[in-house]
UniProtKB/TrEMBL annotation:
Protein family membership: Belongs to the Nudix hydrolase family. NudC subfamily.
One annotated GO molecular function: NADH pyrophosphatase activity
Record keywords, A-Z: Hydrolase, Magnesium, Manganese, Metal-binding, NAD
Any one of the GO BP annotations: NADP+ catabolic process
Superkingdom of source: Eukaryota
Alphabetical list of InterPro entries matching this protein: NAD-cap_RNA_hydrolase_NudC, NADH_PPase-like_N, NudC-like_C, NUDIX_hydrolase-like_dom_sf, NUDIX_hydrolase_CS, NUDIX_hydrolase_dom, RNA_Hydrolase_NudC, Znr_NADH_PPase
Organism: Symbiodinium pilosum
Name this protein carries in UniProt: NAD(+) diphosphatase
Length: 364
């Protein structure tokens, strides 16, 4: 579920002349839910051909871009649902369809919600117009511009030794716990938000923040920024109007937690996996390998002038994937000189690093 890399979707707000053909995907929202059909048991959006048979009236329609060669549109419609189709809340797609399709449906819902809530200028009150160059609304009188709303939020798993801190929000069912989360306030950095939210919700201090990844969370328009953090001090004091309970849990005694399709579940699972690897004696230096790396001084393309940099790599292959972390210059190829164990290898990849430095790859 984690879009670390670009997928097949290419966004655009400008609709080409030939985009609205029969195979185009229509993400149609009816009373706040997405209309879907089942294709071999897997939910998919309707197509333009499907929608032509619907007895529905379209209140707004927005070109989103292309998924591969397929144009995509977001629609808000009312009327009667055609037999063979059904509606579902976006949460109902989690784990049932591809990550790309879920995030695309979330994009469609957020564009519709933004369009419906920005019909009039918030400064002078007159009707807004579509911006000619961006996906935005512009006031023709005072020139105020409104872009689709995004609400950055942090979500953090706090750990202490072999324990993790999980909390249950007020209003959640008994037994359901998750990581701590909260919205970024004006003037804050993301890291400051982590410290503030943890202290506000459970009264403890944290240290050693590690950014782990993000997730678009269209409920209604959050961008969740995930962290691991270590306990630094304090006693648990739950925020009365928000946190019903918070406790330290060991990996073998976890309560009910969100699935891995939510970033909270991913943070928990990844930390548990690190702990299991540590127990099995797997360390980064156990899988060190020397490599010769061809470094091109460019970001998006290889340049004629290149140089070779000798680096030590720390790489672990887990479930067929490699986790690599560094910054800035494009690596065109990695050629292994040797592998310390038969099951450890270096794949050809594009890896950003700084020249003449030792690469430290996060072992997960």
């Amino acid at each position: 579920m984690w879009p670390h890399d670009p997928d097949e979707f290419l966004p655009s707000h400008i609709e080409p002349d030939d985009a609205d053909h029969g195979d185009a995907w229509y993400f149609v929202f009816h009373r706040g839910e997405l209309i879907i059909k089942s294709v071999q048991g897997v939910p998919e959006p309707t197509t333009a051909d499907d929608f032509r048979w619907f007895d529905m009236e379209t209140s707004s329609k927005h070109f989103l871009g292309h998924y591969g060669d397929r144009p995509c549109f977001a629609l808000s419609a009312s009327g009667q649902l055609t037999e063979g189709f059904q509606t579902t809340a976006l949460r109902g797609l989690l784990g049932r369809t591809s990550a790309s399709l879920f995030y695309l449906a979330g994009r469609a819902q957020q564009v519709i919600e933004w369009h419906e809530t920005h019909q009039f200028c918030g400064r002078c009150g007159i009707p807004m117009e579509d911006h000619p160059n961006d996906r935005a609304k512009q006031c023709p009188k005072c020139r105020l511009i409104n872009y689709p709303r995004l609400s950055p939020s942090i979500i953090v798993l706090v750990t202490k030794g072999d324990e993790m801190l999980l909390a249950r929000n007020v209003g959640w069912p008994n037994g359901m716990y998750s990581t701590l989360a909260g919205f970024v306030e004006a003037g804050e950095s993301i890291e400051q938000t982590v410290h503030r939210e943890v202290f506000e919700e459970v009264g403890i201090r944290v240290t050693n923040l590690e950014y782990f990844g993000s997730q678009s969370w269209p409920f209604p328009n959050s961008l969740m920024l995930g962290f691991h953090a270590e306990y630094a001090g304090g006693d648990i004091v739950c925020q009365a109007d928000e946190i019903a309970d918070a406790q330290w849990f060991k990996p073998d005694g976890l309560p009910q937690t969100p699935p891995r399709t939510a970033i909270s579940g991913w943070l928990i699972e990844e930390w548990n996996r690190r702990g299991k690897n540590a127990q099995q004696g797997k360390r980064p230096d156990d899988v060190a390998a020397a490599a010769k790396i061809r470094v091109h001084k460019g970001i998006d393309r290889a340049l004629p002038a290149a140089e070779y940099v000798q680096c030590a790599l720390l790489i672990c292959k887990e479930q067929g994937q490699f986790r690599l972390r560094t910054s800035r210059i494009l690596i065109a190829a990695i050629k292994p000189l040797h592998s310390p164990r038969p099951d450890m290898s270096i794949q050809e990849t594009r890896l950003p690093i700084e020249p003449y430095t030792q690469i430290q790859l996060a072992y997960l």
